Amino acid sequence: MTDLYEILQSRRDTRHFTNDAVPDEVIEKALQAGHWAPSVGLTDATKYYLITSDEIKKAIKELFLEYDAKAASQTDNPSQKEQYKNLKLEAIEEAPLGLVICYDRSVLNNFTIGTVGSNEAIKFSAVCAAQNIWLSLTEQGYSMGWVSILNYYQFKKLLGLPENIEPLGYFCIGKPATNYDNQPMLQQLHWKQKSEKPFVEKISMLHESENERILTVDEDGEAVSAEFESSLQHKIDNKTKPTGALGILEVLAKQIGTVFKTLEPKIIQPNIVVFAADHGIANHGVSAYPQDVTRQMVANFLEGGAAINVFCRQNDIQLSIVDSGVNYDFPPNSNLISAKIDRGTKSFLQGPAMSKEQLELCFEKGSEIVSAIAKKGSNCIGFGEMGIGNTSTASVLMSIITGIPIEDCVGKGTGVNDEKLRFKNEILKKAIDTYSGNEFLDDKLAYFGGFEILQMAGGMLEAYKNNMLILVDGFICSVAFLIAFKKNPSIIKNAIFSHQSAEQAHIKLLNYLNTKAILQLDLRLGEGTGCAVAFPIIQSAVAFLNEMASFESAGVSNK
């Protein structure tokens, strides 16, 4: 079969193969065809991994079967469910060759023509390569099947793929055992009939004009109308006060109304989560307190005696405490969320603080914790931390992410004196100078990061995903937010920075993020105390928006 259109019309996703080996020259020719495929900005972002190991194929098959059961449960139609269960996929082990087609996200670290509008363009390039490979294999008498029903996180771990490498799926390659009556197998088994002709529609009218309502679309595709924003601003301006007279409260009211997309926002079940962990760098004497204070303070949180407990009780805020990686095993019956990655990180002065797997687990655990809180109905979450040595970790992370010199990112933390501050500066500068890893963000996070800081970053990203109001505490929590911001800049819309810390680097970080804090009280305690103290002000912004009279309703003359 050599005619292009015959090849295109034949079945592209083969599910059954003979055990005939795939000659090297066949796969080499096919991969070369993939390499010739359109590639946005000539990035060469597509990568290929070949698999012949029966052990690996079996492990991938088990991953497939686990998700296959989940997929079958998605339909409530009994006959359709039965049909689905009959769609056996033996090709993973049956096909003589496995291929993993991936795209490399690290190419986005440099300017690439074609990716400004959408980073997804490099993924689309990899899909073009998959199509070329299929065409080449079919022309040579072989074929390919695409397996995408997989847990991709586990799939990457199983294959040991770097964080920046993203797989499209697993592709089975070999000689097809059947031609499926020259039609798609799903069609042959009456699962679904493919339409004869493609959908085509000509667009001849420009739909956007100055007279039409303007829409701004956020990163998640949810439209916010200019009409709504205008209505919200009108409501704020027409309260019985001079325009702007309530200052930051008016800014907060507009932000909260915009986040919740309503003229009458309500804060529901506010929750502050304190993440606690130990840091290997603390063993080098960078803190005024011994590492065991982390454990002692977590015990204090659990007994209700810390500042954060007092302020949460005062303002009726739910408080949750998380063991992200304290160097101590708390009793299993403690009123504690257990998300322990390890008993503290290693010292980044001597090597990586954590592994890539631990980094991934931090984001995963942080996300799970916040997701559970969101599912209970909370729409407002504050973040706090506890960990001796974590100002040192946060200072280094701030410096390597923003490019601000380390000496401008280091402060006194929980109260070191001037002499110890100089020592702290020297230690942290030495750690940065001896780093020899690559420039990818996640590699740096794994090398220098702290368990609680990265869990907070993962939690913040999940909070944004659930459209929650995100209250950020002081310097360390702002560094966690910086990480989340680098992952998804749109998160800034949901963030309220509760206070400007006494740490000298905090104002620099707020300026870098182009934002301002509500309060400046010279706080440097952590624990989420700034969130709890600022919360009544946030409630005041909501209260005036919902309850204060307008000029019209009060019969007061506007200017």
From TrEMBL:
Catalysis: reaction(s): 5,6-dimethylbenzimidazole + nicotinate beta-D-ribonucleotide = alpha-ribazole 5'-phosphate + nicotinate + H(+)
Keywords: Cobalamin biosynthesis, Glycosyltransferase, Nucleotidyltransferase, Transferase
Catalytic residue positions: E527 (proton acceptor)
GO molecular function: nicotinate-nucleotide-dimethylbenzimidazole phosphoribosyltransferase activity; nucleotidyltransferase activity; oxidoreductase activity
Domain annotation Nitroreductase: ranges: 9-175
InterPro entries the record matches: BluB, Nict_dMeBzImd_PRibTrfase, Nict_dMeBzImd_PRibTrfase_bact, Nict_dMeBzImd_PRibTrfase_N, Nict_dMeBzImd_PRibTrfase_sf, Nitroreductase, Nitroreductase-like
Function summary: Catalyzes the synthesis of alpha-ribazole-5'-phosphate from nicotinate mononucleotide (NAMN) and 5,6-dimethylbenzimidazole (DMB).
Protein name, entry field: Nicotinate-nucleotide--dimethylbenzimidazole phosphoribosyltransferase
Organism listed in the record: Flavobacterium limnosediminis JC2902
